[in-house]
Amino acid sequence: MKGYAMSLNRVTRWSARAAWVAAVLLVAACNDATVPKPPEPAQAPKPKTSMVPSLVTSAMAAEAPGATASAASGAAAAATSASPAPAANASSEQIARGKYLARAADCAACHTSAAGAPFAGGVPLKSPFGTFYGTNITPDKTNGIGGWTADDFYRALHDGVAPDKALYPAMPYTSYRQMTRADSDAIYAYLMSVKPIAVPNRKHDLSFPYNMRFGMRVWDWMFLKDTLPDASKGQSADWLRGRYLANALGHCAECHTPRGTFGQLDKAKPLGGAALARIAAPDLTPEALAARGWTVKDLQTFFGTGIAPQGSAFGEMYPVVHLSTQYLTPDDLRSLSTYLLGDAAPAPKPLPDNPDTSKLTAGRNLYLAVCAGCHAADGTGKPHVAVSMLGNSTVRQKDPRNLIVAILDGIEPQKFPGLEAMQDMPGFDRRLTDAQIAELSNYLRVAYGGQAGDVNSEIVKQLRQK
């Protein structure tokens, strides 16, 4: 989602700066023969060297709502070089399908601000390199993409190149690169059908040397690949469709995969979790999901409604459900969940029957004083008020970061599909000391999460200061 929104320590940031300067000098010194160019917009897109079979790719395009082509014709559409029909001639079926795909690709999260018009841009994306701003992708010809062709749009998604500049991977073309041409054209047709909004784009606020766009040419040459590695294993139709939903459209890896020194995805740890924002994106590998009690059925419920027995979506994941996954079809929800756990999903790990909390009296007393009113004395929660702490996925994470941050900052009130909602959770940063939050966290982790009570006040202090 937010390709450059990652957390780097000071040494790593200086290493990245040095590397970027070297890349800039390299680009300045190189001629056109040494650094390969992406194809011109008018050219046919080259066939991808993806390991995904063409039949699978076609099926992914055909399964989306409104698709009228067969699997074979979908594969042909993805591989052929014929220029698509102008958006003005797009059928209502293609536009409807494009709307579905735009939701599956979570376009609104970065291109629709809280108080702005749909797709008019302005969403700030903070990173160690500076702040990026989501751009206007309405059909406005001055500020948006109204002057783009379908070829231009595909090239932006596939190669990270706009008609007038190279794109930063804050726009996740590193994942969108796997999108089929047919799906790209459908999203383009849909975006061309929305209301044009004359909102100028905000200039990215980036520090030197990251504000020198031509350095991206070397970055793409080094790190832009046709496929992403899989965290799970499978060959079923659901797994293959889920791979496309997760890796291409949903771009899950952009937040849930660690980053290397140069800001590239660490492909040795696909979906292994990363601290991109204050709330970290957790590990989504099958083993880690099973260790937190997830099943395919529960994941389907979570993506479709935002709430499951393991808790509710919050932080960066809340808008993902609110703007994207709740609109997926039941079949796609099943496929996405199947892909994450794999065809042979590991059994969910049970909680200990009788956790030893005898040494955590201070933490238990804090829980009863400030938490039990909403989450219940036994940690089972209250419907439509607060989620259960017993078996809660955040409580069961090995890394206590998200639990501590939730206690410090609180969680805003949440509205979910249908009539479901959760009340706001107040933050306790001013009410509890670092030592008290450590005691409370340890009680929650041991009593309800089957984790070690190893949180100390120094860990809390560091997160409080961020």
Automatic annotation (TrEMBL):
Binds 3 heme c groups covalently per subunit. PROSITE patterns: CYTC, PROKAR_LIPOPROTEIN. SUPFAM superfamilies: Cytochrome c (SSF46626). Heme c 3 binds at C371, C374, H375. Residues 93-195, 237-344, 358-448 form the Cytochrome c domain. Heme c 1 binds at C107, C110, H111. Heme c 2 binds at C252, C255, H256. Residues 1-33 form the signal peptide. GO terms for cellular component: membrane. Pfam families: Cytochrom_C. GO terms for molecular function: electron transfer activity; heme binding; iron ion binding; oxidoreductase activity, acting on CH-OH group of donors. Keywords: Electron transport, Heme, Iron, Metal-binding, Signal, Transport. Its cofactor is heme c. It comes from the Bacteria. This is Gluconate 2-dehydrogenase. It comes from Pandoraea bronchicola.
